[in-house]
Amino acid sequence: VQLQASGGGLVQAGGSLRLSCAASRRTSSNNAMGWSRQAPGKEREFVAAVSWNGGATFYADSVKGRFTISKEYGAHVVNLQMDNLKPEDTAVYFCAVGRRAFAGREASEYNYWGQGTQVTVSS
User: Fold this and answer.
1) How far apart are CA 110 and CA 34, in angstroms?
2) Which of 3, 12, 69, 120 sits CB 3.0–4.6 Å from 114 for a disulfide?
3) For residue range 81-97, what is the model confidence (pLDDT) as tens digits?
4) Contact yes or no for 1/25 (Cβ under 8 A)
5) Which letter, b or e, does each residue of 40-67 get, where b requires 16 or more Cβ atoms within 10 Å of its Cβ?
6) Per-residue model confidence (pLDDT) at position 108
7) 120 pLDDT exceeds 60?
8) Whole-Å CA distances, 93 to 27, 53, 74
9) Which residues pair with 94 in a beta bridge?
10) Strand, helix or coil for residue 107
């Protein structure tokens, strides 16, 4: 399974970006998908996850209320709408396919990862 993320870029604080990630195989339509991020000099951290049918979502406290993850039922695409962006959101964002229909914050719950897309938020 290959994952291709897109939508990253440079935005001012308070602005919005929408990330998308498409998986190469439809097996991901039965799996949870998620996003994590890694800022320079920091460890990768969980951002958000969505269940296989898009019905359940889970967010890191740092993005709750500002980011929205979505996945259409039967689709192999996951989106991350990021609003009210802050400079501390600056990072490379990675999408991933979960091992099962539901997944959470642990990296071990995911078995396929994309290469990442850069998000830079200026103050």
Assistant:
1) 8
2) 3
3) 999 999 999 999 999 99
4) yes
5) eeeeeebbbbbbbebeebbbbeebeeeb
6) 95
7) yes
8) 22, 22, 23
9) 36
10) helix
| Residue among 3, 5, 19, 6 nearest 89 (CA) | 19
Please give the Cα distance from 80 to 109 (Å, whole number): 19
pLDDT above 70 covers a percentage of the chain that reads 97
Q: Tokens 């400079």, residue?
A: 87
| DSSP-assigned letter for residue 41 | T
Residue 113: name the closest of 37, 8, 9, 10 by CA: 37
Query: Is there a contact between 53 and 75 (Cβ–Cβ < 8 Å)?
Result: no
Asked if 63 and 84 touch (Cβ cutoff 8 Å), the reply is no
**Percent helix, strand and coil across the chain, each to the nearest 5:** 10, 50, 45
Per the structure block, which two tokens stand in for 96? 């991933």
Residue 35: how many CB atoms within 10 A of its CB?
27
